[in-house]
Write a structure and sequence with these properties.
73% helix, globular, Vanadium-containing Chloroperoxidase, domain 1, single chain
Length: 184
């Protein structure tokens, strides 16, 4: 079964590589680069702290906590456990050079960028529903950019998003529970 999944994963990667939308090349390359070290999420959290009230500050702390837990899980044990999963050979698989970002040195599986983006978007979006759609849209752009720029296979991104979303959901639930306890 695994070889068949790898075939589908590679075929989907190649289909994205064949997409000819030059107007997306620079914006998705910039989005992928900008997401290094969770910059969009740290900046968003900072804005929530500076310009929001107690609820926004709580959401910012929850979102950053979700990123921390996700990064710790994804970038340490999971990437080490899946050490046989190398990055895509984007030249051989047809990703146009105009899309390329610097190739990370870590293993490919799962995508840390996608995991952190989902963790922040899901946790903050649950606590601040008005931000749910824009945060999830931004996280989706980051996740797709990782395949589009050729640094991850689609399954790397899918698993990263799933892990991040689960941790983000858990972080938000814990924050809600803690807030309810403090109110009583």
């Amino acid at each position: 079964m695994i070889p068949r999944l790898k075939e589908h994963d590679r075929a989907l990667f190649e289909a994205v590589a064949r997409l000819s939308v030059p107007s997306l090349d620079a914006p998705l390359r910039r989005a992928s680069d900008f997401a290094d070290f969770s910059k969009p999420w740290f900046l968003t959290a900072g804005a929530l702290v500076l310009f929001g009230g107690a609820r926004e500050r709580r959401a910012a702390v929850t979102g950053l906590s979700a990123i921390g837990a996700t990064s710790l899980l994804v970038n340490q044990p999971l990437k080490r456990l899946t050490s046989e999963r190398s990055r895509p050979d984007r030249a051989a698989l047809g990703v146009p050079v105009e899309r390329w970002v610097k190739m990370p040195t870590s293993r490919s599986f799962p995508s840390g960028h996608s995991a952190s983006a989902a963790a922040f978007a899901v946790s903050v979006g649950r606590l601040l529903p008005a931000l749910r759609l824009p945060l999830r849209a931004a996280a989706s752009v980051v996740a797709f950019s990782r395949v589009y720029t050729g640094v991850h296979y689609p399954s790397d991104v899918l698993v990263g998003v799933t892990i991040g979303a689960l941790i983000g959901h858990l972080a938000a639930r814990l924050a809600e529970r803690r807030h309810r306890v403090r109110q009583h």
